[in-house]
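User: quick one, fold this
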Amino acid sequence: MFHARAAARHRLAAAVTTVLAVTAGTALTTAAHASAAPAAAVVHAASAAPADAQDGVISIPATSRIVGAGQSGFLAAEATDTGAVFRWTSTTTGTTTELPKRYSGYYAGGTDTIATKEDAKTRYLLHDMASPGSTPTVVEQPDTRLLWRGLVDRTLVFSSWDKATEKGQLRLIGEGIHEGSDRQVTGLPANFMFQNMEPVSATTMVVRYFVDDPDARRFYVAVVDVDTASVVEKREVGAAGAGADSAVSADRVAWVEGGGVTAELKYADRSGEGGTPAVKAVDLGNAVSAHVDILGDWLAYTPVPYAQSSSYKSDRYAFTALNVVDKKTVKLLDHATTAVPTPDGALLVRGGTLAQGEGIYRVALGADGTPTATLVASTGMPTALKLVRTDVPAVVDLDRNDGSATLSWTLSRYNAEGTVTIRHNRTGKTAQRTFAGSSATHGTRVIDFAWNGLISHPEDTSSFAPAGDYTWEFNASPLNGIGPDVKETGTFKVTRTTGLHDYTDNSSPDLLSRDASGVLWRDDAVNTSSVPYPYSSGRVKIGSGWQIYDQLEAVGNIAGSTAGDLVARDKTGVLWLYQGKGDGNFAGRTKIGGGWNTYNKITGGSDLDGDGRSDLLAADTTGALWFYKGTGNATSPFGARVKVGGGWGVFNQLTAVGNIAGTAAGDLVARDTSGVLWLYEGRGNGTFAPRTKIGGGWGSFTHLVGIGDGDRDGRNDLYAVGSSVSKFYAGTGDTTTPFKPAAAGGLLWNAAPVNSVF
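Assistant:
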């Protein structure tokens, strides 16, 4: 079959020397030589090869398929969202040249010549990539009835079909205008219809076609000698689609035939007009796109190519060699997309192995006659699904970006599915994102987790994530089943500013309540864009036995830690401190002191003197109001009391609400016995400006709680609880109208069973 000329044989010997030098580890020149590139081309070194790739492996950009191989390099293409990118890689210099984009793309013809068509013109350009800086040869072919099908060495291959006469042509057009530069291939039926062609060598191609005879449509594989422009052998084969593959060697011809679920790989010994019987080598099932090549007595084939973008598992992805003599099989690659013959009789295959990753492999017969695969050019990407990048900061500040954060993980390819889980180490609460498979084929895949700052147990509603240590876990499974699942873990910290009335270190306020049996409960407030008011993430039991106290009050951080605290007065007048632990619970009580039964109203939780610590206010039975400065000392949490003034006996409810009037100081609201609510704006020294009337109708509420920033708008709010209703009043920061109209109270829907809310 190979009618090699003397010059071709000389180039073949040089190619063998070159490829052997590459695979043996000879140092490569990786510097770019811009002057050696075709006009508008880009020469570059690609991403580094995998760490386990052997010395001498060329580094190349991402590639989807190999188009052809010459004496000094190969042509490969990368599929992108904007069209294919073609690149020539020199195996002598180790450089890769990106070719100018053309609508027609590029063809290779089994040598160092590649061809393209200029856009919107009838000019075809032949580039000699052994001398990439040289001026391309121009071939004019203005006949628009001819369809360009490929290239053999420096000869362009065209086909045509005349519907009126029902005649087909296969034309070979070369350089120049002399006689013989435009030749019609002889030996084909007049009514043949072209399917596909592939160059086999510098002088030979294999062509698939069919004819419509009166009784049936018949399909053929033909071997064409380019030097004589004639069919030297043809064979009738079974029906197949336009893309069905075939291959030819000096001794055999192999082809894929069939469709639907009946595809088969067949071969036969060559004997002129195809007189030897065909032999079924492999039952391909529905793998009608199978690729086949011939290497001595071996058929090398991939039943299902392009497995890296497949969304289903299969045992037919491997690039496998079958010995047609002894029926032995050898798995060469875990998957492959395309393969082309080289001038020295080997194959170059675009594929991958779990051991060495993605790239171009040279498949050749070893000393014992068995084919082996050697990586010669690596894309730097793994064949197994890998997590190639993690973008999770060491510290995530959830007080920024409206309480959200974006964490990212990058997979080596698209066709995977899995989960990302964020877990709070102390509570075990999680947030999770599930990602499904994708059929996209281009490049790496970024999995973004746009975390809204919420976490939950499966049986709970979501709550805001507290500060502390977190673990992320990334799990992904390759949809194509090639390689193991991915499982990676890491850690990060969440920071938050402890908010007013915050007992869980998650910057959102908590509402505390005691029921009639003495059980203390906590409702953690959640406010998201989907709900117009704060709601509870679920009632959590803190503990029992709290019926021994006749006064309970949330007082903010008075003990020096970051968490909020509470004080409780027993029936003998002793005041006790329960220091918050930051996890929604409290440490054992510490005695503050006795004599507190002189007060009938106690409120706390606001910084009234501007020192950054919460303070306490207490009104005695004579109507005097006393200021207790917070010290931040757990053993002595308050300084000596200072009298604020008298006349406070007219009020039956005092509530420290923090800053709601727009100044930096903490404020106070007081309800009189007629149900009118008054604002006392703090001056920042423990005293207050004259009162401002907020409005009437507040007498129906049994408890008014300065809950802090419940709606996360940066302003403190008020929560009002009645015997059968609760309301949320959002702060405005305006002294004259400090609260917006009431919204539904989603923290404590039915207050009847509780006798204290704070």
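User: anything notable?
Assistant: The CA atoms of residues 408 and 448 lie 4 Å apart.
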